[in-house]
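Hi there, hope your week has been kind to you so far. Thanks so much in advance, here it is.
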Amino acid sequence: MKKLLLTVAFSLFGVLSFAQIEGKWKTIDDETKQAKSIVEIYKKGDQYYGKVSQLLIKPANPNCVDCKDDRKGKPILGMEIIRGLKKDGDEFTGGTITDPKTGKTYKCTITKSGDKLNVRGYVGISLMGRTQTWQKVN
């Protein structure tokens, strides 16, 4: 009986922890391979959002001067860069991600692989985009 309860408990833990993206993640630039910031991903209702909680490299301008929406001129630190993702099987899709350096907003898909997130930003179809790998912050 004890073995059965332990098996059920571990199985439940595995299901609950699978593909969870909530928490703090170190962003790694896909071109320079440098860590740039820490993004905290959190859930509001049935959607996921992410905000910059720490800057690891000081940007040329601390504000998003090229943003086109409500983030225009706002500080990058604390900025919500991921908006409206929804869990769809093993992926998180349907939302957007904004690059505060350029002010551009892209469609976004996130998949989790162990302690890493594959964050893909794209315009139009997913083939026309870039992927960054973010690392879990303990």
